[in-house]
Design brief:
CATH architecture of the largest domain in chain A: 3-Layer(aba) Sandwich
Helix content of chain A: 40-55%
CATH class of the largest domain in chain A: Alpha Beta
Order of helices and strands of chain A: HHHHHEHHEHEHEHHHEEEEHEHEHHHHHH
Number of domains of chain A: 3
Strand content of chain A: 5-15%
Oligomer: heterotrimer
Largest sheet of chain C: 7 strands, mixed
Number of strands of chain C: 36
Largest interface: A-B, 93 and 72 residues
CATH class of the largest domain in chain C: Alpha Beta
Radius of gyration of chain C: 28 Å
Strand order of the largest sheet of chain A: 3-2-1-4
Number of helices of chain A: 20
Distance between the termini of chain A: 28 Å
Chains: A alpha/beta, B alpha+beta, C alpha/beta
Bound molecules: flavin mononucleotide, iron/sulfur cluster, FE2/S2 (inorganic) cluster
Number of strands of chain A: 10
């Protein structure tokens, strides 16, 4: 076990105070001091350098270093915009909502520091529609911060001027994808744009340079500016620095959102340790777990000792994604679990790409049929081939015939479940055939359970 | 009702003013319209189209993409039970089944008295509180079947009116940017470097920088 | 254009910088399947059919070739197993929800999805689930039906609607697997350009009512031609089956229409085959017409002409019309009227155009020049969305994509207002005041025609920015004289060096007719009686010496009893001349009226002899568009009954008159035009033969043609090495030296020059009158629209729009119907407010059902003044 006593960067305040969301509490606990420090002693470039030095990986899913991303804005092209991704909707994920509801000023200060650093003319804070409390808390925080001169024109008496505009979604998972988010902010249907040419840093909101960052990512920034990058990089391991929030849900005794030291703590720690999720419900056997949100391929028992470190988990054939760990115990019907995740993607496909629009629904229909007892023996290969036509080779990291990774994400559960639990699919099909008086094909020798890292093709 | 009220037109105009392009205000304005009428009406969309300078078809194109916008009337309380993987693992199927029994309607429908609409929805970011549900997007965590019955009773009796406003009302706190603090929305055409980009930079060094 | 070396399937090719992989591959013979990509629209990369493996140095990856630009050393593999698998997969996905109703689908036989499936598709479907269901075809407009089950969601129609047409009235609705295309409820896709979506739909989801179930593609025969719906000159393919025209398709002529058509042009084909076409000549017997033999009809005509010559002389004979004719027809009639009969009372315009010298005597621009990146444009003419719709599309594209800035000078808002940088609103009949104030500032004691000084300043900044300036010049209103516009043009040509003009006259071949001399004072080749009388006298029996009357003058003369024979050459003054009162008096006053037409229209019904003419698609010839671009009209069907081509009628009439035009064939006419018209030098029969399929050429051809220039003087690209394979169109060759060049230096008569109007003062108006502004709508009660079944009901009618300030003084409710009176007559009309209409101005539309503007207009007044009668004690 590698449970460390790393300081809590993001949740210390909200852990301690019920009123952490108020401006009074925020100011009293050092709030807006990082901003003051930046505006009085640091140039925008200094702030950007500090964040870069902290190698703060994005917490939205892709894990791209924030400081590097900020540097991608083409020089001399103005205006630039900052977009804050608060659309949190990846199944299993619950942490941005917590940060917005419980410590909105921390986020706002991060937004201001980022705006200062990149020279954003305006910042847009896009909050998922189904989170009215977060919305209310952030709105109140913004109003208070405006009143106190922290936002708006000539902040703290300096030339730094920026409006932070609260915007809200209306129920569409895909809008969490950054280019779809930008479309949505332009008032359009949330359909992703192709990258290239539409990399937000170059051609984002209104085709201007735009930085899109996740709520958790930006919530780290005040701490980094206050304490320095060096303190931040003291925490964590390898490429993964600082701390990170993980939501552990599913078949565990103590589901919760835990801020742990990044890169050091292991899956076993957060799933099994009494201070965290406290083990599998009813002390049953763990069958599989989703390590980084519904989009990530499943991992198993043998992966429990992997540290929560980006590169290591990538190499194991999955990802830490949005920090959402979903535990499935031995009682889980894997076909049903697979259907649950596939249905999500089918329902949330924006409909732009043919393979995703048609393919994800087709996968869902086949799985439903199998579960309803109308499966055919050929359906398992069909599921794999349809998946292959959405994500060629079913390798990791995924290849795609689509614009964005949503379509391929739907193949992660299918490929994971079929590769490891093919017999469960067969069992459903057999049962259905027998019920209809048909003769199922002879049972095949059960293949060795495949190790995901190898089986996913390991295209590192 | 259906077009925005005069008061709401004022709110709408303020919202529009925050964005570099009027169309960007579409989703917030659709929420405003839904807040006013409980769902988004055709007249509401037409009015919004006028306000932001697009066609009604464009408004509908955007509106119908998003799950939260209801194009038909719904109940006063929209009960959304999460069916996604974490909640599914923790028994949301049974909860949904129970809810259908209790309310006497299938998922996707509204009780005849117009009080409840039942929906089964995708992940609502409450996975650690499974099974979770929302009533008009207000969260209720770890809901047991008994808990569900109690909740429905409370809602029907109006005991939760303070916590759960009627469907459509999203946030009861609105952002307000005071005029004297407003930095202003910057349209993409406004091509200038922000004034602060060289704030706190060390004075240009002797061996290269221009005297300022 | 710099070149980029790219490898496609192992073959090195040279792509243009910025060229998309899908285009570069196609240019080099490698066709990559596609559904959403359309070369005239921005790529969206969403159907995923064009996925190919592209290696930019980091290993091959599947990429949509419609979104990826060629970069140096890129390697593209369109045949690799990975590519194949991906494309097969996409095709299967597209088919799982697509109905298998090819046998009853309009698109069957010309459907890319069907073709792809037959070539590459899976033999048997693995999809056993239920297909997506939608209500069967739903009308999304008066002309277009949508079958959502067939739709493959390629975004072509929706992109076209918003990006090209600017009418985003159809949109994707819902999302994911439930995505569909639709309109807002009860808000149809009422776009002038809706038919294009039918043409670009890659499957049979969108169908056109006028064509539905009419034919199967394999039964159709096609030829290329030029649309005669207006004067833009869009290239089309005429498709016919069993001697019936069934459909027009837009052809992508790069300098003109880019493949687009307006709905009036596209669906106007129904008029060609209309059941009530004139089939045979008619002669009046009392109140009745009798069908007669051609010789009888022609003899009756000749007798009237001979009698007129004997009594009044040539000036007793007048010809109105000619803009429906081909160039060759127009030449024959010009030669007959002017060279044989000797009258100069000839006018192809119907009092709704500009003096010929303003059309022909100013430096001319092409559409490409109007739309050149970075250029400035002044719109000083009609609403181009209503009258020259595809020109509207081109200019709109230029504004939105190429930085073109438009200054609109008009007394009413137009379809272009929202794309204009500056809209100068001036009082009716004072466009010249506004333009002069634009150039020089508002002179003391004047007010710039009522235009806003700040708006004028903004316009001046654009005009003086140094960007090339082009003026679209046409008639801004039918209820005022063209003098103000001509004066404004004079000011512009005097003051702005290098300014060029594009004509905004709308009648199909009015420019060809003018080029052939069908206007008072003119001879073929854009020259005058004075300058070219001698030149033509060598070949023509005679040439008039006195400049004759225009249409207004002819009708006035006829009304006064001075016209013995009035020949209507495809003209219907009663319906089409702005001043109905004058037209009625003229027709009544003319002793004999001869009408050559395709329909027995209102004016023809008043005629003594009606000669049934062949119509569009029924004869060979050429036509000339707004740019002066000559293109070939091919024959596809035979005329109804015994109807004859106009030039043949002219030739036979000449023979009966005892003379000979010496024109035995269309080629004879072409030879003679080439010989006599300085503007048509080099446009020989050979050259025209090669142009039968192609974009046409702008005349006059450049005297020193750039190598391979395509005729409009712009040598860009065509003929350079890169286009060796691409230069497949005859038009490209037309300008090549060996074909033409040689003769171009022949001397010819001096070209026509702009005739300036005298100093103009608009008449004062009293506080209770309005100056009437009369515009046209695309759909009106004209022949083409009313005879094309599906367009017939689309004329929207008209209301009267006035400034709210003026309206308030009326003391009535918005939408009240009031009597509107002019010195000519009275109509009842609904009155509405429009902030964009200047004070003292009233706007209505011409030739609409209901209130008839022609009953009000006085064609002899500088501007028609009208009053609203509010019914108080008068
Ligand atoms: C289908 C899809 C859904 C996504 N949803 C979210 C989301 O809900 N929240 C989020 O922050 N990022 C989400 N992302 C990642 C964003 O595209 C983007 O990478 C992120 O917001 C960048 O912020 P970061 O660099 O701070 O992580 C999603 C990506 C995809 C492909
Ligand atoms: S992959 Fe799916 S969600 Fe992503 S852009 Fe394509 S259709 Fe939309
Ligand atoms: S043609 Fe390229 S994605 Fe459709």
């Amino acid at each position: 076990m590698t449970i460390t006593d790393a300081p809590k960067i993001l949740t210390a305040r909200l852990d301690r105070y019920a009123d952490a969301h108020t401006i009074a509490r925020y100011e009293e606990t050092g709030g807006y001091q990082a901003l003051r420090k930046a505006l009085t002693t640091l140039s925008p470039g200094d702030v950007a350098d500090e964040v870069k030095a902290a190698s703060l990986l994005g917490r939205g899913g892709a894990g791209f270093p924030a400081g590097v991303k900020w540097g991608f804005c083409p020089p001399g092209v103005w205006p630039r915009y900052l977009v804050v991704n608060g659309d949190e909707s990846e199944p299993g994920t619950y942490k941005d909502r917590l940060l917005m509801e419980r410590d909105p000023h921390q986020l706002i200060e991060g937004v201001l520091l980022a705006s200062y650093a990149i020279g954003a003319a305006q910042a847009f804070l896009y909050i998922r529609g189904e989170m009215p409390l977060a919305h209310e808390r952030v709105a109140q925080a913004l109003n208070d911060a405006y009143a106190k001169g922290y936002i708006g024109r000539n902040i703290m008496g300096t030339p730094f001027s920026v409006d932070v505009v609260l915007s809200w979604g209306a129920g569409a998972y895909i809008v969490g994808e950054e280019t779809a988010l930008i479309e949505s902010l332009e008032g359009n249907r949330g359909m992703p744009r192709l990258k290239p040419p539409f990399f937000p840093a170059a051609k984002g909101l209104y085709l201007q340079p735009t930085v899109v960052n996740n709520v958790e990512t930006l919530s780290n920034v005040p701490w980094i500016v206050s304490n320095g990058a060096a303190k931040f990089t003291e925490l964590g391991a390898d490429t993964s620095k600082g701390t990170r929030m993980f939501a552990v849900s599913g078949h565990v005794k103590n589901p919760g959102v835990f801020e742990v030291e990044y890169g050091v703590t292991t899956f076993r720690d957060v799933i099994m340790a009494p201070v965290y999720a406290a083990g599998v419900r009813g002390d049953r056997k763990l069958k599989a777990f989703i390590p980084g949100g519904a989009s990530s391929p499943w991992l198993y028992e043998e992966h429990l000792d992997l540290p929560l470190e980006k590169v290591i988990v990538d190499k194991a054939g999955s990802m830490l994604g949005s920090g959402a760990i979903v535990v499935m115990d031995e009682t889980t019907d894997m076909v049903k679990a697979c259907l649950s995740v596939v249905s999500f993607f089918a329902h949330e496909s924006c409909g732009k790409c043919t393979p995703c629009r048609e393919g994800t629904t087709w996968l869902r229909q086949i799985l439903e049929r199998i579960l309803a007892g109308y499966g055919r023996p050929s359906d398992i290969d069909l599921l794999m081939d349809v998946s292959d036509n959405i994500s060629p080779g079913l390798v990791w990291p995924p290849k795609q015939t689509t614009i964005c990774p949503l379509g391929p994400s739907a193949t992660a559960p299918t490929a994971s479940a079929i590769r490891r639990f093919r017999h469960e699919f067969e069992a459903h099909i057999d049962r259905g055939m027998r019920a209809r008086g048909e003769q199922p094909p002879p049972a095949q020798a059960v293949a060795e359970p495949a190790f995901a890292g190898r089986d996913h093709g390991g295209l590192e | 009702m259906a077009r925005l009220t005069t008061e709401n037109v004022g709110v709408a105009k303020e919202i529009i003013s925050r964005y570099p392009r009027p169309k960007s205000a579409l989703i917030p304005l659709l929420h405003l319209s839904q807040e006013q009428d409980g769902y988004v009406t055709e007249e509401g969309m037409q009015h919004i189209a006028e306000l932001v300078g697009v066609t009604p078809a464009e408004v509908l194109g955007t509106c119908s993409f998003y799950e939260m916008f209801k194009l038909e009337p719904v109940g006063r309380y929209v009960v959304n039970i999460c069916n996604n993987v974490s909640c599914m693992l923790c028994g949301s199927d049974e909860l949904i089944h129970h809810a259908e029994q209790r309310l006497g309607i299938k998922v996707g429908n509204t009780t005849p008295d117009g009080t409840f609409t039942l929906e089964s929805v995708e992940c609502i970011a409450a996975c650690t509180e499974a099974p979770a549900l929302q009533v008009n997007y207000r969260f209720f965590n770890k809901v047991s079947t008994d808990g569900f019955d109690g909740l429905i009773d409370d809602l029907a009796a109006g005991r939760l009116d303070d916590d759960v406003p009627a469907h459509g009302t999203l946030a009861r706190v609105r952002q307000h940017i005071p005029d004297d603090r407003r930095a202003g929305s910057i349209p993409p055409e406004g091509q200038t470097e922000p004034a602060w980009m060289h704030l706190n930079e060390p004075p240009a060094s002797a061996d290269g920088g221009e005297p300022s | 254009m710099s070149d980029v070396a790219v490898t496609i399937n192992g073959q090195e090719i040279v792509a243009n910088k910025g060229e998309l992989v899908i285009d570069a591959a196609e240019r080099h013979g490698v066709y990559i399947p596609r559904f959403c990509y359309h070369p005239r629209m921005k790529p969206v990369g969403m159907c995923r059919m064009c996925l190919v493996e592209i290696d930019t140095g980091r290993g091959p990856a599947l990429q949509p070739s419609c979104m990826i630009e060629c970069t140096p050393e890129m390697k593209v593999d369109t045949q690799s197993p990975v590519t194949k698998k991906a494309q097969d997969g996409v095709l299967e996905f597209l088919l799982i929800n697509h109905p298998l109703d090819c046998p009853v689908c309009d698109k069957g036989g010309e459907c890319p999805l069907q073709d792809q499936t037959l070539t590459y598709g899976p033999g048997e479907s693995r999809f056993v689930e239920e297909k997506r269901h939608h209500e069967k075809p739903i009308p999304i407009s008066d002309l277009v039906l949508l079958d959502r089950e067939r739709c493959i969601l390629c975004d072509r129609c929706t992109r076209f609607a918003s990006e090209v047409a600017g009418d985003p009235l159809i949109s994707f609705l819902h999302r994911g697997n439930e995505t569909e295309v639709n309109t807002f409820p009860d808000d149809p896709f009422a776009s002038y350009f809706s038919g294009n979506t039918v043409q670009i739909c890659p499957v049979g989801a969108l169908t056109a009512l006028p064509y539905r179930f009419k034919a199967r593609p394999w039964d159709l025969e096609a030829t290329e031609s030029t649309c005669q719906g207006c004067s833009v000159g869009c290239r089309i393919a005429i498709q016919e089956s069993r001697n019936e025209v069934l459909r027009y398709l837009g052809v992508d002529a790069d300098p003109v229409n880019w493949g687009w058509l307006c709905d009036k042009g596209r669906f106007g084909f129904e008029a060609v085959g209309a059941g009530n076409r004139l089939r045979d000549p008619l002669v009046r017997r009392g109140d009745q017409f009798s069908v007669v033999r051609w010789s009888d009809a022609l003899h009756a005509t000749a007798t009237a002409i001979t009698a007129a010559l004997g009594s009044t002389g040539p000036s007793g004979i007048a010809v109105i019309g000619g803009a429906r004719l081909t160039n060759e027809d127009a030449y024959a009639w010009s030669k007959l009227a002017k060279g044989l009969i000797g009258t100069d009372n000839v006018d192809c315009q119907l009092g709704d155009g500009l003096p010929a010298s303003a059309v022909l005597g100013l430096p001319k621009a092409t559409i490409d020049e109007l739309c050149a990146p970075g250029a400035t444009v002044i719109l000083l003419g009609p609403d181009i969305k209503e009258e020259l719709p595809v020109l509207f599309l081109r200019l709109k594209h230029a504004v939105q994509n190429d930085g073109v800035k438009v200054i609109e000078v008009s007394s009413m808002p137009t379809g272009f207002t929202k794309y204009a940088s500056v809209s100068i609103r001036h009082r009716a009949a004072e466009a010249n005041e506004a333009v002069r104030a634009l150039l020089d500032g508002i002179p003391a004691g004047k007010d710039g025609g009522g235009a806003d000084a700040r708006v004028l300043d903004a316009a001046r900044a654009l005009v003086t920015s140094g960007a090339p300036l082009t003026v679209l010049l046409g008639r801004t209103s039918l209820s005022e004289q063209p003098d103000a516009v001509v004066d404004a043009a004079a000011a512009l040509v005097d003051r702005v060096p290098g300014v060029k003009f594009l004509s905004g006259l709308r009648r199909a071949n009015v420019h060809g007719a003018l080029d052939m001399g069908l206007a008072p004072g003119l001879l073929p080749g854009r020259t005058t009686l004075a300058a070219a009388g001698g030149w033509f006298g060598r070949v023509w029996p005679q040439v008039p010496t006195q400049t004759g009357l225009d249409t207004t003058g002819i009708l006035q003369a006829a009304a006064a009893g001075h016209v013995d024979v009035l020949i209507l050459l495809g003209a219907d003054p009663l319906a089409d001349f702005p001043d109905r009162t004058l037209a009625e008096q003229g027709l009544a006053g003319a002793r004999t009226v001869i009408a050559l037409d395709t329909f027995l229209n209102e004016s023809a019904q008043q005629a003594d002899v009606v000669l049934a003419a062949a119509g569009f698609g029924e004869c060979e010839g050429t036509t000339t568009n707004i740019e002066g671009r000559v293109s070939v009209l091919n024959q596809k069907v035979t005329p109804p009954g015994s109807a004859r081509t106009d030039w043949i009628i002219a030739a036979e009439l000449a023979r009966i008159l005892g003379s000979d035009l010496q024109l035995e064939s269309v080629d004879d006419i072409r030879d003679e035009i080439e010989e006599l018209s300085a503007a048509h030098r080099g446009l020989t029969v050979d050259v025209l033969a090669k142009m039968a399929y192609g974009d046409g050429v702008v005349v006059p051809l450049p005297s020193e043609p750039a190598p391979g220039a395509d005729g409009d003087g712009d040598a860009d690209g065509v003929g350079s090495e890169a286009s060796d394979e691409a230069g497949d169109e005859a038009s490209d060759e037309a300008g090549e030296p060996e074909t033409v060049g040689a003769d171009l230096e022949r001397p010819g008569p001096a070209p026509i020059e702009l005739e300036r109007t005298d100093a103009l003062e608009a008449p004062p108006i009293d506080a209770y009158s309005y100056r009437l502004v009369t515009g046209r709508r695309l759909y009106d009660q004209g022949t083409l629209v009313s005879q094309a079944g599906h367009l017939a009901g689309l004329a929207p009618g008209t209301v009267l729009r006035i400034n709210p300030y003026d309206f308030d003084r009326l003391g009535v409710a918005e939408g009240t119907t009031l009597p509107l009176r002019s010195p000519r007559g009275l109509v009842e009309i609904e009155v509405h407010t429009d902030r964009e209409v200047p004070r003292g101005t009233a706007v209505m539309f011409f030739n609409q059902p209901g209130a008839d503007a022609a009953r009000l207009i006085d064609a002899t007044a500088r501007v028609t003044e009208v009053r609203l009668e509010t019914g108080g004690p008068s």
